[in-house]
Amino acid sequence: MIEHWRQRMSRAVGLRVAVWYAGVFIITSAAIGLIAYQLLAISLVRRDHDLLLVRLAEYAGTYERGGLPAVTQAINAERASGSRDSVMVRLVGGGAEVQFFSLPPAWRTYDIARLDGRRPYGDDWEQVQSTVDTTTLEVVSRSLWDGTILQVGRTTIERDQFLAQVRDLLGIMIVCVVVAGLAGGIALTRSALQPLRELRDTVRDITETGRLDARVAADGDGDLVDELGVVFNAMLTRIETLVGGMRDALDNVAHDLRTPIARLRARAEGALASARGDDPAARDALAACVEEADRVMALLTTMMDISEAETGTMRLSLSAVPVDEIVHDTIDLYEDTADERGIALSSTAAPDLVVRGDRQRLRQVLANLVDNALKFTDAGGRVTIGAEARGDEVVIAVEDTGRGIPPTDLPRIWDRLYRGDASHAQGLGLGLSLVRAIVTAHGGRAEVESEVGKGTRVMVTLPKSA
Amino acid sequence: MRILVVEDDPTLAEFVAKGLQEAGYVVDIAEDGRRGLDLAAANRPDLAVVDVMLPALDGLGLIEALRHRGLRFPVLILSAKRSIDDRVKGLEVGGDDYLTKPFAFAELLARVQALLRRSSSASSEPTRLQVADLEIDLLARRVTRGGQPIDLRPREFALLEYLARQAGRVVSKTMIQSRIWNYSFDPRTNVVDVLVHRLRERIDHDFSPKLLHTRRGMGYVLGVEPGGD
Asked: What does the pLDDT average to over B36-60?
């Protein structure tokens, strides 16, 4: 579950970086394309205008020198020779009468009447729309010395077609840029995140196996990720030292307590063995000493187990453990006890379930749960061990029809030395803490549901064996 | 049979030595590793009980030295450490069995006897066991008392067989638990008590004298006891 979430998280980071990269790349490329297009369009318009102004100046000169006949002659000569681009030329007199009008036949669709009745000031530009299509006739007008207006015009069809082609080309280019940007972004983030992914795998390996001697591979190229690896390795070394120190400290405490308890037990047992027929009260006291010594040892062992499991120093010999086997072992252990107390102990565990864990520790977990269940169930009740697969996990549940746990006590049952019912002095109150510690050390979890007067159900979830 | 006990704690050394002497063994005590090595070379014991933490030469070093000198008798290691590493290390250097402190004497004795049996390996497996008028046929898995057949469930039979093999000697709860169920940890409910109680119902309830006795603080013993409970 956690792993799945982690993977999604890292993918989300990768995706975000890729999208940002692609976005910036695409926007920049599009902006450059647009500016280039604008510059191109402006220079094309300027070239066309220059062309018309040249012709306008030429015809104005001709008119000045020879009047209308000279202009007519020059234009007819041009037309006949076909040596120059054809343009529209019109001369309008002071009284608005058209004195000369020459228009290439292909341009007859333009609404020339729109040019009438205007007195230009300097060079005056006019766009005339076609009546049948979207093309434009660009016309420049100039007042001559005698009040006659000279108008020269040219269609923009060539320029428009050329710009349309450029726009199509730009469109194709932008599509290519988007594709290249996204692909590049994904490839870039993949390769950039690769060392982080390795780091994550190492960390995951450590948390799953508890092998603290694992290290991140640092390639030594001194970049940020490499540095992170080095720092991380340094941290791991410190953790390893700490955990090792803690393990030693626990071992020493255990050792220092075991020796005097061993002495105490030996003295009491030795005295008991040689005290046959002596004062029964003295023998009782000696026997109690031995029993108490054993109890203290059991308590110490359990507390050590909990500490080791909680600090991650418990050595688990992991293997594939068939659930029905450990359930069967537990029933075997408690069958007679349950029978004696008039409680029906049975299993509803599904067959063929296999978990990954330490067989001895898992047997201990189940034994503790069944022990508790039997303790809090009255004669005539039932204790059932169930097991079922849930996704890639196995849930083992121990359910009883006992007295149940009040809701206020539920969160505290996992605490050390908590005892729901003070009258049960037998239990050391560590059973459930140990269960949870061992299960957590296995990468699983322990949960409880209970209803007062109806019973309790403790569930242990463990990873399925691959 | 001669047994060497190497233990620096006088209380424990005396406790172990006394128990072994009562069981019929000749016992030498050494309080440090070096002295243990000398005594082993001089007396050639049949078995040694060696503590791990010892002055002068520690237990593991002693075992290595013994094996180096060609002394091959079995060694039972005693240790106050319980981690598996120590156990593995002890067995690796040439120890034969491992017992964690604190321990019941019955368990130590059982292990000593098992090691001695293993090293002589002469005794043939019996097919019948008898304690007073209680007879156990190990092959047919039948039990009779005074000629009267007794029905036992497999677990009860296993316990009776175990007790009968150690007849007259105390067997601790821990020994029974690991023998019958192969559980090494402490189940808080006394499952051994329950099983012993059931076995007693079958073999002792309708008969006299009582054979299965509880020794408080020590364990259980099968046999006829003049002043037993």
From this structure: 91
